[in-house]
Design brief:
By secondary structure, this protein is α+β, with helices and mostly antiparallel strands. Helix content is 27%, strand content 32%.
Length: 701
């Protein structure tokens, strides 16, 4: 454990989610923040696998973030305050969207990182929509300003063109690309020049950008004062507010979403890094400014005319250090040295070592053995944390991801995160019997870390579903590294079925005699197909007791077993009606087993005589894409034997396409859709029906 860190209260706490497209420089920027704040002696490198936030082997090997990184730092801002900043470094890949959901659930400010080289990308647009949905204030940082082809002005124009938001640029670059040497502060109209060690000194704004900077200053000041009547009146009277007054007004506008500041930085050279931290602290809201929202039990709150709530009711929890303790566990990690680590945000009250916390859902109680803040893999010990703080504790048995814990049981729960149904799946085959024995419990623990994983162990295969191929590849690696379970992956078998083509009458007979009691049973059956989706129907039309009543359940059981055993093509049989017309029994040799066998023989005979067709599962698919990709996506769906059922234009300019598509055509659809749409497309699929597969027999069977 590192040196103890103490809490300073919610007003000087900043919980900041770093979000953006993959490769925009979020992790490198977090590294620069930590180094500039003195939290680490030197900045690490993503390429070398030495960064604080990307420390897991799966991240180092790929050179990308695959989980939510948490890192604490202390920062003294120009207003004289010392702030405790928790950085929540999120992955940019859509495969790990669950980490972004978790970060936005507890952050008070989202720093949207946009590459000065690549500009607004699909990931930028996606996180912007998710911030809108979460109602979280934003600040934009144009990163990688030192790289070739960097252009702050081009990115600013792209932001204004692609995203509907009140962007307020607060800086201009001095130089750019390899010649970047400082920033022009639009509010103070002073230049901040950077020395080689990242330290700064102020100068007059250079002549080559002076006119542009002054024009931007006037534009920004007018935009800020329009939201404050007193400042607007003074400004119109010729009295321009000072930079400190403008920042106070701007901070309120950031909180309400009336302004989105745009800053710039180079994490490699250090240019602008300190100023971003200054403004995160001075303009960003604190937990005291934004009450947490928790869900009430189903049925609470007002309902519709029939008394049923139209949506789940919520209530606000103020970040009051003197209130009742309530914490939200938003991430769970299995640490190889200390076991399960629960990362949480204190919503209300305070938590100290030795306290007891109770699950608001189950009433299970845990003792807090030791508190610490996270800085990547480093644990910074702390005796007490208060409302607004993000911290962690080990070995809480009652704390799974999404749990609320408090001083006592209460009728509240964490708000549901956005639904992330699986869009890609693989089957897991244990390498050894030992791996097979441990697989189920390991998958349960793995899913506790990542709720966007889905596990299905009910069929003949162990199926792991997630948000993409990289998501599942990382999960498989984690199974072996963290839980010692080795598995091979293989394609998920499509759940084909068979059904009868026509009605047929058959006889099922069992006649065996080998001394003593034999086996005798005869049943006359009419076997016919049912309408799609009807399943199974068993009917007795026996007259006169030729088949004793007590044996009819055995005939039904035999028929069901024959259907489950598969038809001529090897798939389970569905939608069948079996009617017993007549039969024969023997007073000594008949038994339940004999009639069970006869029922199965009769059904198998019917399937062989009448023949079957193969049915394939069809999913209802809803695809959301940019309007300019609509034609390509619809053409691709048609090529997958899909049937378009509806299209709808959405308010944000995108298009939703509804279609019915065979499940066999969707195994890699998420990967192909991202390729077609440049990462801007998404979809959901739900099982809908079974239909006859064209051609009947599936290849390879």
């Amino acid at each position: 454990m590192a040196t103890t860190s103490t809490s300073t209260g919610p007003a000087t706490t900043r919980n900041v989610a770093l979000v953006g497209h993959s490769g925009s420089g979020k992790t490198t920027l977090a590294e620069a923040f930590l180094h500039r704040a003195g939290a680490i002696p030197r900045a690490g490198s993503v390429a070398e696998g030495t960064t604080v936030c990307d420390h897991e082997p799966e991240e180092v090997a790929r050179g990308i973030s695959v989980s939510l990184g948490v890192a604490h730092l202390d920062w003294r801002a120009p207003d004289g305050g010392t702030y405790q900043v928790t950085l929540l470094d999120t992955p940019g890949s859509p495969d790990f969207a669950g980490s972004v959901d978790a970060a936005l659930a507890v952050a008070d400010l989202a720093v949207v990182v946009v590459s000065a080289v690549d500009g607004v990308q699909s990931g930028t647009e996606e996180v912007w929509r998710r911030c809108d949905e979460a109602g979280i204030p934003r600040l934009v940082v144009v990163s990688q300003e030192d790289r070739a082809r960097a252009s702050f002005r081009t990115v600013l124009a792209a932001l204004r063109g692609a995203l509907d938001a009140p962007f307020v640029p607060l800086e201009l670059p001095l130089g750019e690309e390899q010649s970047l040497h400082g920033v022009a502060d639009v509010l103070t109209e002073r230049a901040r020049e950077y020395d080689g060690d990242g330290r700064t000194h102020e100068e007059d704004v250079p002549a080559d950008v002076r006119d542009e900077e002054h024009a931007l200053h006037d534009e920004v000041v007018e935009e800020i004062v329009t939201h404050d009547d007193d400042q607007l009146e003074a400004y119109l009277a010729g009295d321009e507010p000072g930079a400190a007054d403008l920042e106070r007004t701007l901070a309120h506008e950031v909180l309400t979403g009336e302004a989105v500041p745009v800053l710039l930085a180079s994490a490699v050279t250090g240019v602008g890094v300190d100023r971003v931290l200054d403004l995160v602290c001075e303009l960003g809201p604190s937990p005291a400014d934004r009450a947490a929202v928790v869900a009430l039990p189903d049925g609470a709150g007002s309902g519709g005319a029939d008394g049923v709530p139209s949506e789940r009711a919520t209530t606000e929890v103020a970040a009051d250090p003197a209130g009742d303790a309530l914490v939200h566990v938003f991430r769970t990690v299995v640490d190889p040295f200390v076991g399960q680590v629960s990362v949480f945000k204190v919503l209300s009250g305070s938590v100290a070592t030795g306290d007891r916390l109770v699950s608001t859902a189950t009433g299970a109680e845990d003792r807090v053995h030791g508190l610490f803040r996270l800085r990547g893999r480093e644990h910074v010990a702390v005796d007490r944390v208060v409302a607004g703080d993000v911290a962690a504790v080990a070995k809480l048995s009652a704390a799974s991801t999404g749990t609320l814990l408090g001083a006592r049981r209460a009728p509240v729960s964490a708000r549901d995160l956005p639904e992330r149904p699986p869009v890609y799946a693989v089957a897991l085959r244990p390498v050894s019997q030992s791996d097979d024995d441990k697989l189920s419990s390991a998958l349960t623990r793995l899913r506790a870390e990542d709720p966007t994983l889905h596990v299905d162990l009910t069929g003949s295969q162990a199926v792991l579903g997630g948000l993409g191929d990289t998501h599942l590849a990382v999960a498989v690696e984690r199974l072996e590294r963290s839980f010692g379970v080795r598995v091979a992956t293989e394609p998920v078998q499509v759940a084909y079925r068979e059904t009868l083509t026509r009605a047929v009458e058959v006889e099922g007979k069992v006649k065996k005699q080998s001394g003593g009691h034999g086996q005798f049973a005869v049943v006359q059956l009419r076997v016919s197909p049912l309408p799609r989706g009807e399943g199974f129907e068993f009917v007795s039309s026996v007259v006169g007791g030729s088949v004793p009543r007590q044996y009819l359940p055995a005939v039904e059981r035999g028929a069901r077993e024959a259907m489950e055993g598969g038809g001529p093509h090897g798939y389970p049989v569905v939608d069948l009606r079996v009617e017993v017309l007549d039969g024969k029994a023997h007073s000594v040799d008949s038994s339940d087993m004999a009639f069970r066998t006869a029922g199965g023989v009769g059904v198998r005979e019917a399937l062989a005589t009448a023949g079957t067709v193969v049915l394939e599962p069809v999913s209802a698919v809803s695809v959301t894409v940019p309007s300019d990709a609509q034609g390509d996506v619809m053409g691709d769906l048609s090529a997958r034997r899909g049937h378009i059922t509806a299209t709808d234009s959405l308010p944000d300019g995108r298009v939703r396409i509804d279609a019915l598509v065979p499940e066999a055509e969707l195994t890699r659809y998420v990967l192909d859709l991202r390729s077609i749409t440049g990462g801007r497309g998404s979809f959901m699929a739900t099982p809908d029906r079974y239909e006859v597969r064209p051609g009947g027999v599936v290849a390879g069977r």
